[in-house]
Specification:
Strands 21-20-24-17-18-23-22 form a 7-stranded antiparallel beta sheet, with no helix packed on it. Strands 4-7-8-15-10-13 form a 6-stranded antiparallel beta sheet, with no helix packed on it. The protein has 2 helices and 25 strands. The protein has 3 domains: about 25 residues, no CATH class; about 240 residues, Jelly Rolls (Sandwich); about 100 residues, no CATH class. The protein is mainly β and about 375 residues long.
Length: about 375
């Protein structure tokens, strides 16, 4: 059998017949999950003391959540370099139990999740007889073998229908690939907006109220059916759990993981979260107008956000203002009028900015500065 090029697509010939590859299964952006290779970590690479009802984003687009009565368990999440060999991954998300809880409260459940905008899911045709099945695949590793569960929660802006499935980690400390297919929901459409239309949750522990039922296809969000048979990852401080290569795609089979260029992958994350301050000292990050002798309003433009973001930042003295030949440390900072595409801060100094109506530069003062613009689901 020989090979030839047809319209820049590599093809195979068998006699006189040209066999083209199945390009539909390898179309670009087939992976609905963002940052499934765990390579983007704008908020940091280590998150400690997770527990006590925390709900917190960690590596980009992946949220740690705990529901119900909290126990003693605490965890650390890190961006790890432990990955399945020969698969092309450089990072994984690692969850390490640091404080054990051997008796999980009946209504307690802990999971990591990713939430997906409804307007990105309309091609799944949920709510019609043509609803598409999707296949979720991922690589997972743990010393704690046994049954784990994954939940899909559909149209959370509406009824919040539940689909639960189980998978087994068979060999301790060994990377295993798991594949789960979710049939399409013909009964309930996903809302066509920027709200949470579908979310996937990887459970790590569950009390009896969340685990005494059985796995189910699309139906009412019956709590007992969320995590049947789920192991308790918190029963020992020796327990660790890793995941990477998460892919969700249309169809009833998994294709190889879709690796995106770094800039494309990060820009998909920036729609939901962005740090406007580089970790560099004396970096000019914005220009602004001198409003009064004690205040500059630096203006920021950024990747369009899903919604009007919330804004948080490090202490005022981690920034300074350069104006009229002099640099002055900020004494206080507040956010003002941030929209999906731009916004400004009110940055104050003790005195000396001039002239009113003139301009100044907003500058990092150290390497630990942060300006978090957050529009997560």
């Amino acid at each position: 059998m020989s090979t030839l090029k047809v319209d820049s697509i590599e093809s195979r010939t068998s006699g006189n017949r040209v066999v083209l590859p199945d390009v539909n299964n390898y179309s670009p952006f087939r992976n609905i999950i963002i940052n499934g290779d765990m390579s983007v970590a704008q908020r940091g690479t280590s998150f400690t003391g997770l527990g006590d009802g925390d709900s917190k984003y960690t590596l980009d687009r992946f949220k740690w959540s705990e529901e119900g009565t909290t126990g003693d368990a605490e965890f650390t999440i890190t961006q790890s370099t432990d990955v399945p060999t020969g698969q092309g991954f450089a990072n994984s998300l690692k969850i390490d139990c640091t404080t054990a809880d051997t008796s999980v409260a009946s209504n307690n459940i802990v999971y990591i999740e990713q939430r997906i905008e409804g307007q990105n899911l309309q091609y799944l045709k949920y709510g019609t007889s043509s609803a598409e099945s999707t296949t979720l695949s991922f690589w997972v590793k743990s010393n704690k073998t046994g049954t784990y569960t994954v939940n899909a929660l559909g149209d959370t802006a509406g009824s919040g229908k539940l689909y639960s499935q189980a998978y087994t980690i068979s060999s301790a400390d060994t990377w295993e690939k798991k594949t789960l297919t979710f049939i399409g929901d013909t009964a309930l459409a996903i809302s066509n907006n920027s709200s949470n239309g579908l979310q996937f949750m990887w459970n790590l522990l569950a009390g009896t109220d969340k685990s005494s039922g059985s796995v189910q296809t699309w139906g009412s969000n019956t709590q007992a059916n969320r995590a049947p048979g789920q192991v308790n990852l918190a029963d020992s401080t020796s327990n660790e759990w890793y995941i990477t290569g998460i892919q969700l795609e249309v169809g009833d089979s998994a294709t190889p993981f879709e690796f995106l260029p770094r800039d494309v992958n990060k820009n998909r994350c920036l729609r939901y979260f962005q740090d406007l301050a580089p970790k560099k000292n004396d970096c000019r990050i914005a220009l602004g107008e001198v409003v009064v002798a004690t205040r500059l309003d630096p203006i920021f433009q950024y990747v369009e956000k899903r919604a009007n973001p919330s804004v948080t930042f490090t202490a005022a003295n981690t920034f300074s203002i350069y104006n009229a030949g002099t640099s002055r440390d900020c004494t206080s900072i507040s956010s003002d009028n941030f929209s999906e595409i731009c916004g400004n801060l009110n940055a104050n100094v003790s005195s000396g900015l001039e002239p009113v109506g003139g301009s100044g530069q907003f500058i990092t003062n150290g390497t630990g500065t942060q300006i978090f613009v957050d529009a997560e689901l």
